């Protein structure tokens, strides 16, 4: 059975380590101490906590899209009609193409906070094969 440290829980849920510690201290999320005194969360307990949406922001907007990435805008390239916006959300780099008008109305600038909401019927497949390899 998997167990996760507070920092790992924070990374998985997308919150700070302090938030996870507050959840544990308040009893919202169960944790036990290992032989070194570190708090660990049981993987099954964490999965149930996340499924229940216990870590969700109550102020969030509800939609059918379940993949939400809050991050920092790292680049905005505006053309005459379209804009390409890059967002860094933790280890995830997301790129969105939108109308220039939408980017302007949203006030998207390098350094601003934004949330990318992803809902797709497409599945992208990665390969360990380098460019120019046998399957390029």
UniProtKB/TrEMBL annotation:
Gene3D superfamilies, alphabetized: 1.10.1660.10, 2.40.50.100
InterPro entries: HTH_17 (IPR041657), Mo/tungstate-bd_C_term_dom (IPR008995), Mop_domain (IPR004606), SinI_DNA-bd (IPR010093), Transp-assoc_OB_typ1 (IPR005116)
Protein's UniProt keywords contain Electron transport: no
Keywords in alphabetical order: Molybdenum
Residues annotated as domain Mop: 62-127
UniProt xrefs under PROSITE patterns: MOP
Gene Ontology biological process: molybdate ion transport
GO terms assigned for molecular function: DNA binding
Pfam families in the record: HTH_17 (PF12728), TOBE (PF03459)
NCBIfam families (UniProt xref): excise
Protein name in UniProt: Molybdopterin-binding protein
């Amino acid at each position: 059975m998997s167990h996760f440290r507070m920092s790992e829980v924070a990374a998985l849920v997308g919150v700070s380590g302090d938030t996870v510690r507050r959840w544990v201290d308040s009893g919202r999320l169960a944790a036990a101490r290992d032989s070194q005194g570190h708090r660990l969360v049981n993987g099954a307990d964490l999965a149930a906590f996340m499924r229940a949406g216990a870590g969700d922001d109550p102020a969030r907007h509800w939609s059918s899209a379940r993949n939400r990435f809050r991050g920092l805008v790292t680049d905005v390239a505006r053309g005459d009609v379209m804009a390409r916006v890059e967002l860094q959300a933790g280890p995830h780099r997301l790129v969105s193409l939108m109308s220039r008008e939408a980017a302007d109305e949203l006030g998207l600038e390098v350094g601003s906070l934004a949330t990318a909401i992803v809902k797709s019927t497409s599945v992208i497949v990665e390969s360990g094969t380098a460019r120019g390899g046998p399957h390029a």
